[in-house]
Design a protein that fits this description.
alpha+beta; four-stranded antiparallel beta sheet; 2 helices; 4 strands
Length: about 80
Amino acid sequence: MEEGTGGRRMTAQPTGPAPGPDTGSYEVIHLGGHAAVVVPLADFMRLQALERLASTQELEDAEDAAALQEWRAREAGGQTS
């Protein structure tokens, strides 16, 4: 899929199974060198509501848990030193 973005062309390609965070049934794509997960709009809206309603401590805990999950996925793929 190609889409114009302010005069630039960006390509999004689905990726096959690869070491990385557990994304469940969500499709992983790469945009501009970054990995992204395609989620249904309802899931995205629910996550926004959860973030809006969460306490500062809950948000910090979630960020820590996500960072740890990302590090473990990189380690499993041999990308850590």
